[in-house]
């Protein structure tokens, strides 16, 4: 029988929109943007099952709850991909590549795939602990998903030979003594700190685009003004050229 360890007290340590099964199971399931798959996954033997809507806070919660339970060695990604956030792709990229010095998930294609509350050490522990990521992104077929869970269980290598790691997320979502801090929707923090660097970059792009638009308007106005001026001058010259012969004819004759 595979070796098992006790998860951190009060596991799962971070509250969220998930269902908990057997804490000694080697499988964690992320249903991405889908709901209604949880109970079937728990019945198949998963340790924890829940959605992940955001490529930053949502992923931080997954890391925190997984590395605080050394028994979880597989992660099954299933359910519909979250458009824009691409949390499934970001989770795969995190496992495959880790994060950079700026906290960005290397190779992630989501909108803002930056982990601000999880350091490299925690990410590397997550990557060591998870021996396989099963890619069933955009699959909601319960039979395929539960079969994948059972296959993972059949390959259970036992708990990672490291102690549980308890992360204290800055958003204050870590639980003390295993008690819930109240109702929360997964992926939506109680307090959101603005990403000033991202806002500055966005403002720079907006200023650049506004500058281009202003230049185009000025050029168009100049062309229009010159065209109007040309029409007036041309009309005046035509009038002069027509009226001069008439005047001369009247004077001569």
Task: Provide the fold topology.
Layout: E1 19-20, E2 27-30, H1 38-44, E3 48-50, H2 57-67, E4 74-79, H3 87-97, H4 120-129, E5 132-137, H5 142-154, H6 196-252
Parallel strand pairs: 2-3, 2-4, 4-5
Antiparallel strand pairs: 1-3
Helix pairs in contact: 1-5, 2-4
Structure description:
This is Tetrahydromethanopterin S-methyltransferase subunit A. A five-stranded mixed β-sheet has the order 1-3-2-4-5, sandwiched between helices. The chain is α/β, with parallel strands linked by helices and 253 residues long. The protein folds into two domains: 19-191, no CATH class; 194-253. It has six helices and five strands.
What characteristics describe this protein?
methyltransferase, 5 strands, 253 residues, 5-stranded mixed sheet, rod-shaped, alpha/beta
Q: H/E series, N to C?
A: EEHEHEHHEHH
Largest β sheet strand count, sense and barrel closure? 5 strands, mixed
Sheet-strand content, in percent, reads: 5-15%
Alpha plus pi helix count: 6
Mean pLDDT: 83
The rounded distance between the terminal residues' Cα atoms is 126 Å
What's the shape?
A: rod-shaped
Rg calculated over all Cα atoms? 32 Å
Low-confidence stretches: 174-194
- Total strands: the figure is 5
The structural class is alpha/beta
Whole-number tally of structural domains: 2
Helix fraction, binned, reads 40-55%
Spatial sequence of strands, sheet with the most strands: 1-3-2-4-5
Domain Tetrahydromethanopterin S-methyltransferase F subunit: 187-248
GO molecular function, one term: tetrahydromethanopterin S-methyltransferase activity
Main location: membrane
EC number: 7.2.1.4
């Amino acid at each position: 029988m595979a070796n098992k360890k006790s998860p951190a007290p009060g596991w799962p340590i971070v509250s969220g929109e998930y269902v908990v099964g057997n804490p000694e199971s080697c499988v964690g399931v992320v249903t991405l943007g889908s709901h209604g798959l949880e109970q079937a996954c728990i019945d198949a033997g998963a340790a924890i099952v829940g959605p992940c809507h955001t490529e930053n806070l949502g992923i931080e919660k997954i890391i925190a709850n997984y590395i605080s339970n050394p028994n979880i060695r597989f992660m099954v990604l299933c359910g519909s991909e979250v458009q824009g956030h691409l949390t499934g792709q970001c989770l795969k990229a995190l496992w495959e590549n880790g994060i950079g010095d700026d906290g960005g998930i290397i190779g992630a294609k989501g909108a803002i795939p930056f982990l601000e509350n999880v350091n490299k050490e925690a990410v590397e522990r997550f990557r060591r602990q998870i021996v396989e990521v099963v890619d069933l992104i955009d699959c909601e077929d319960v039979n395929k998903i539960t079969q994948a869970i059972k296959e993972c269980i059949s390959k259970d290598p036992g708990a990672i030979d490291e102690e549980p790691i308890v992360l204290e997320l800055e958003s204050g979502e870590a639980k003390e003594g295993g008690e819930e801090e109240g109702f929360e929707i997964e992926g939506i923090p109680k307090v959101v700190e603005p990403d000033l660097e991202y806002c500055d970059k966005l403002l720079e792009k907006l200023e650049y685009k506004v500058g281009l638009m202003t230049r185009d308007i000025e050029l168009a106005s100049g062309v229009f003004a010159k065209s109007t001026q040309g029409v007036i001058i041309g009309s005046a010259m035509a009038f002069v050229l027509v009226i001069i012969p008439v005047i001369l004819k009247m004077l001569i004759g």
